[in-house]
Amino acid sequence: MARMVGAGEISAAELIAAHLEQIRKINPRLNAVVELVAGSAGVPFSVKDSIDVRGVKTTAGTFGRRNAAPAQEDATLVRRLRAAGCVPIAKTNLPDLLFSFESDNLIYGRTNNPYDLTRTPGGSSGGEAALIAACGSPMGLGSDCLGSVRVPAAFCGIASIKPTSGRLPRTGHVPPAGGWAEALWQIGPMARRVEDLVWAMKLLAAEDSDDFTSPPMPLVESKKGKNLRLAFFVDNGFARCRPEIEAAVRQCAEFFSQSEIAVEERRPPGVDEAYELELALLGADGAEGIDNYLKDAGSTEVHPFLTHFVDQMRPYRATAGEFAKRWTQWDEYRANLRRFFREYDAILCPVYTGVALKHGESVIEENFHGFSYTMAWSVAGAPAATVRCASHDGLPVNVQVVTKPWDDMLALEICRSIEDQFGGWQPA
């Protein structure tokens, strides 16, 4: 779209107007947008309602922030997009305090999947995914701790990336970064096409004086070509995928194999433990941090999905000694994956065990376990991207591409090859 504006094919003002009109058409069915942002002329983008936009409140979907004061400053990444000529046009829906794989809260209600209104677009960046898939925004910012940009992207058939932990600054996010869990999550871009993620990463990746966890690491372009070594797996040893998901991942692996790229079916070490490890790290304090945040925010009521999620964390309350052992397990997990990446440049695997869930079904134990396929790479701190590669019963099926930390652009290069071969996003 930036190229279209530069070539004079459409004015920047017309581009904004067209997207606002599309939002007016689709939002009554989807409930993806919670607030329109007064914009001028430029390339439009949308923002998850946990990321600050100057002059607009940020609720994080939790009841106590329903009347929050407008943000005084843009989040760092919003500011960088503005500086490049982009304009925020909408804040999008999410679950209560971001803790659910469905986007539903007590302030704005639930968001629907554009491919089937009886299904969820996922969470926690579900409003972003639904809006982008329905062409209400060309690109947006989400955030991801356990799969929160990748699961919604997969449920809605768009592309996204959870960058390397620390790759993008998180200044201006609600709740803020910090504490032992800060290495588990990242802000990440979401778009219909991989080329837009590449553009966004080049624009957004830089150190930030306000976020000490975002180091000055260069964004290196991949030059692997056909010298790639790919591993793939369809069963993480913890949650079994449905046949259509396994078939989609195998289809991608076969495509690369036929392209004379070395491909081997092999499961990385420890991924069967990732589910327990991430919940144990997040719940080491018995979820007291979340309880206190909600109390301080004035959230006297919480959504049942948040209650369910926190209840999965509470049993992992740990003593100092137990937490030290868990941290050692975390270090061993990351070290083993680093060794795995000496043999392979990238991993292909499922994003989730099935297609988009019906509303309310994410809390079923078997379904909740399926999110372990994204948790594995949050715990690893590795970049994990996703792109649509197939369909099942009219619903999108995505594949997940993982590379070693700081090799984000290779993950996107592989996603672009998959998109070129299998078509990527398709209209609902």
Describe this structure as you would to a colleague.
α4 runs parallel beside α5 (150-156), α6 runs antiparallel to α14 and α8 crosses α13 (372-380). The chain has helices at 2-6, 12-30, 76-83, 126-133, 150-156, 194-204, 243-258, 274-282, 288-297, 304-313, 320-343, 365-369, 372-380, 408-422; strands at residues 33-36, 43-48, 86-92, 104-105, 109-110, 139-144, 159-162, 186-191, 229-232, 262-265, 346-350, 384-392, 395-403. It is globular. The protein is of the alpha/beta class and 428 residues long. The protein has one domain (2-422): Amidase signature (AS) domain (Amidase signature (AS) enzymes, Alpha-Beta Complex). A hairpin with a 2-residue loop joins β12 and β13.
What is the number of independent domains? Answer: 1
Rg from alpha-carbon coordinates: 20 Å
**CATH-derived topology:** Amidase signature (AS) enzymes
CATH architecture annotation: Alpha-Beta Complex
Strand order of the largest sheet: 1-3-2-6-8-7-12-13-11-9-10
As a percent range, the share of helical residues equals 25-40%
Question: How much of the residues is beta strand, in percent?
Answer: 15-25%
How would you name the CATH homologous superfamily?
Amidase signature (AS) domain
- In the CATH scheme, the class would be Alpha Beta
Distance between the termini: 21 Å
Number of strands: 13
User: Main β-sheet: number of strands, strand sense, barrel status?
Assistant: 11 strands, mixed
- Structural category is alpha/beta
Mean pLDDT score: 96
Low-confidence stretches: none
